[in-house]
Amino acid sequence: MTVGFDEAGRGPLAGPVVAGAVILPPDFPIEILNDSKKLSEKKRLYAEALIKEKAMWGIGIVDHKKIDEINILQASLLAMKLAYEDLQKRFGVSPSNGITDGTFIPDVPFECRAEPKADAKYPCVMAASIIAKVCRDRIMCEYDKLYPEYGYAKHKGYPTPAHKKICRQLGPSPIQRLSFKY
Q1: Which of 49, 81, 135, 153 is most exposed, with the fewest beta carbons within 10 Å of its own?
Q2: What's the whole-model pTM score?
Protein backbone atom coordinates (compact mmCIF):
# COMPACT_ATOMS: atom_id res chain seq x y z
CA MET A 1 0.00 0.00 0.00
CA THR A 2 1.33 3.38 -1.01
CA VAL A 3 0.36 6.48 0.92
CA GLY A 4 0.49 9.87 -0.76
CA PHE A 5 1.37 13.01 1.19
CA ASP A 6 0.94 16.68 0.41
CA GLU A 7 0.44 19.92 2.28
CA ALA A 8 -1.47 23.14 1.85
CA GLY A 9 -0.46 26.45 3.30
CA ARG A 10 3.31 26.79 3.09
CA GLY A 11 3.14 30.23 1.49
CA PRO A 12 0.51 32.11 3.52
CA LEU A 13 1.28 34.80 6.06
CA ALA A 14 -1.35 33.51 8.49
CA GLY A 15 -3.00 30.34 9.70
CA PRO A 16 -1.88 26.73 9.86
CA VAL A 17 -0.16 24.41 7.45
CA VAL A 18 -2.29 21.33 6.79
CA ALA A 19 -1.18 17.99 5.35
CA GLY A 20 -3.10 15.06 3.97
CA ALA A 21 -2.13 11.40 3.81
CA VAL A 22 -4.18 9.20 1.48
CA ILE A 23 -4.24 5.55 0.40
CA LEU A 24 -6.55 5.09 -2.56
CA PRO A 25 -8.40 1.85 -3.27
CA PRO A 26 -7.71 0.23 -6.66
CA ASP A 27 -11.20 1.11 -7.95
CA PHE A 28 -11.03 4.82 -7.07
CA PRO A 29 -12.11 7.07 -10.00
CA ILE A 30 -8.74 8.81 -10.44
CA GLU A 31 -10.04 10.89 -13.35
CA ILE A 32 -11.62 13.28 -10.82
CA LEU A 33 -8.21 14.00 -9.26
CA ASN A 34 -5.61 16.64 -10.02
CA ASP A 35 -3.30 18.97 -8.15
CA SER A 36 -5.72 20.79 -5.81
CA LYS A 37 -4.59 24.17 -7.14
CA LYS A 38 -5.74 23.16 -10.64
CA LEU A 39 -9.28 22.19 -9.59
CA SER A 40 -12.19 24.54 -9.06
CA GLU A 41 -13.56 24.76 -5.55
CA LYS A 42 -16.63 22.77 -6.62
CA LYS A 43 -14.49 19.95 -8.06
CA ARG A 44 -12.25 19.93 -4.96
CA LEU A 45 -15.27 19.59 -2.67
CA TYR A 46 -16.68 16.76 -4.77
CA ALA A 47 -13.33 14.96 -4.84
CA GLU A 48 -12.81 15.48 -1.10
CA ALA A 49 -16.18 13.88 -0.31
CA LEU A 50 -15.38 10.88 -2.50
CA ILE A 51 -11.88 10.51 -1.03
CA LYS A 52 -13.27 10.54 2.49
CA GLU A 53 -15.97 8.04 1.52
CA LYS A 54 -13.87 5.53 -0.44
CA ALA A 55 -10.21 5.95 0.56
CA MET A 56 -8.15 5.73 3.74
CA TRP A 57 -7.04 9.19 4.80
CA GLY A 58 -5.62 11.32 7.57
CA ILE A 59 -5.12 15.03 8.25
CA GLY A 60 -2.32 16.78 10.12
CA ILE A 61 -2.48 20.42 11.23
CA VAL A 62 0.33 22.59 12.57
CA ASP A 63 -0.65 26.05 13.80
CA HIS A 64 0.96 29.44 13.18
CA LYS A 65 2.75 29.45 16.55
CA LYS A 66 4.51 26.17 15.87
CA ILE A 67 5.37 27.38 12.33
CA ASP A 68 7.09 30.41 13.87
CA GLU A 69 8.86 28.17 16.37
CA ILE A 70 10.27 25.50 14.02
CA ASN A 71 10.01 27.13 10.52
CA ILE A 72 7.61 26.35 7.71
CA LEU A 73 9.57 23.45 6.21
CA GLN A 74 9.77 21.60 9.53
CA ALA A 75 6.12 22.44 10.24
CA SER A 76 5.10 21.01 6.84
CA LEU A 77 6.99 17.79 7.52
CA LEU A 78 5.47 17.59 11.01
CA ALA A 79 1.99 18.06 9.52
CA MET A 80 2.67 15.12 7.17
CA LYS A 81 3.80 12.96 10.08
CA LEU A 82 0.64 13.92 11.98
CA ALA A 83 -1.46 13.11 8.89
CA TYR A 84 0.10 9.64 8.76
CA GLU A 85 -0.57 9.15 12.47
CA ASP A 86 -4.19 10.24 11.95
CA LEU A 87 -4.56 7.81 9.02
CA GLN A 88 -3.12 4.99 11.11
CA LYS A 89 -5.42 5.82 14.04
CA ARG A 90 -8.52 6.00 11.83
CA PHE A 91 -7.88 2.90 9.73
CA GLY A 92 -5.24 0.83 11.54
CA VAL A 93 -3.08 0.51 8.43
CA SER A 94 0.67 0.39 7.99
CA PRO A 95 1.62 1.45 4.45
CA SER A 96 4.56 -0.26 2.77
CA ASN A 97 5.80 2.96 1.20
CA GLY A 98 4.96 6.57 0.58
CA ILE A 99 5.45 9.42 -1.83
CA THR A 100 5.39 13.10 -1.06
CA ASP A 101 5.30 16.20 -3.17
CA GLY A 102 8.48 18.24 -2.94
CA THR A 103 12.07 17.45 -2.03
CA PHE A 104 11.84 16.45 1.65
CA ILE A 105 10.28 13.44 3.35
CA PRO A 106 8.37 13.30 6.63
CA ASP A 107 9.51 11.21 9.59
CA VAL A 108 7.45 8.07 9.00
CA PRO A 109 8.26 4.41 9.78
CA PHE A 110 8.41 3.19 6.19
CA GLU A 111 10.26 4.00 2.98
CA CYS A 112 9.09 7.28 1.52
CA ARG A 113 10.35 9.23 -1.45
CA ALA A 114 9.99 12.88 -2.32
CA GLU A 115 9.36 14.03 -5.84
CA PRO A 116 8.79 17.58 -7.06
CA LYS A 117 5.39 18.00 -8.76
CA ALA A 118 4.18 14.65 -7.40
CA ASP A 119 0.83 16.36 -6.79
CA ALA A 120 0.38 16.50 -10.57
CA LYS A 121 1.59 12.93 -11.25
CA TYR A 122 0.40 10.48 -8.61
CA PRO A 123 -3.28 10.04 -7.75
CA CYS A 124 -2.62 9.34 -4.05
CA VAL A 125 -0.63 12.58 -3.76
CA MET A 126 -3.31 14.48 -5.70
CA ALA A 127 -5.88 13.15 -3.23
CA ALA A 128 -3.72 14.23 -0.28
CA SER A 129 -3.37 17.66 -1.89
CA ILE A 130 -7.14 17.96 -2.20
CA ILE A 131 -8.06 16.99 1.35
CA ALA A 132 -5.31 19.22 2.78
CA LYS A 133 -6.42 22.26 0.77
CA VAL A 134 -10.13 21.81 1.50
CA CYS A 135 -9.42 21.37 5.22
CA ARG A 136 -7.18 24.45 5.34
CA ASP A 137 -9.66 26.56 3.37
CA ARG A 138 -12.40 25.62 5.85
CA ILE A 139 -10.17 26.58 8.77
CA MET A 140 -9.40 29.95 7.19
CA CYS A 141 -13.11 30.60 6.58
CA GLU A 142 -13.73 29.94 10.29
CA TYR A 143 -10.94 32.39 11.16
CA ASP A 144 -12.64 34.91 8.87
CA LYS A 145 -15.66 34.81 11.19
CA LEU A 146 -13.40 35.63 14.15
CA TYR A 147 -11.31 38.26 12.35
CA PRO A 148 -13.47 39.52 9.47
CA GLU A 149 -11.42 42.68 8.93
CA TYR A 150 -8.51 40.55 7.61
CA GLY A 151 -10.47 38.95 4.76
CA TYR A 152 -9.34 35.37 5.36
CA ALA A 153 -12.33 33.87 3.53
CA LYS A 154 -11.12 35.55 0.34
CA HIS A 155 -7.34 35.14 0.36
CA LYS A 156 -6.96 32.30 2.90
CA GLY A 157 -3.98 34.07 4.46
CA TYR A 158 -1.89 34.21 1.30
CA PRO A 159 0.23 37.34 0.74
CA THR A 160 -2.17 39.26 -1.47
CA PRO A 161 -1.85 43.05 -1.66
CA ALA A 162 -5.08 43.37 0.35
CA HIS A 163 -3.81 41.06 3.10
CA LYS A 164 -0.49 42.87 3.36
CA LYS A 165 -2.23 46.24 3.43
CA ILE A 166 -4.62 45.33 6.24
CA CYS A 167 -1.74 43.88 8.28
CA ARG A 168 0.16 47.16 7.89
CA GLN A 169 -2.96 49.13 8.90
CA LEU A 170 -4.17 47.00 11.83
CA GLY A 171 -1.06 45.07 12.74
CA PRO A 172 -0.83 41.29 12.75
CA SER A 173 -3.95 39.26 13.37
CA PRO A 174 -3.95 36.71 16.21
CA ILE A 175 -3.21 33.95 13.65
CA GLN A 176 -0.41 35.78 11.84
CA ARG A 177 2.85 33.97 11.24
CA LEU A 178 5.13 36.50 12.85
CA SER A 179 8.26 34.99 11.29
CA PHE A 180 6.89 35.86 7.82
CA LYS A 181 7.22 39.33 6.33
CA TYR A 182 3.99 41.17 5.58
Answers
A1: 49
A2: 0.96
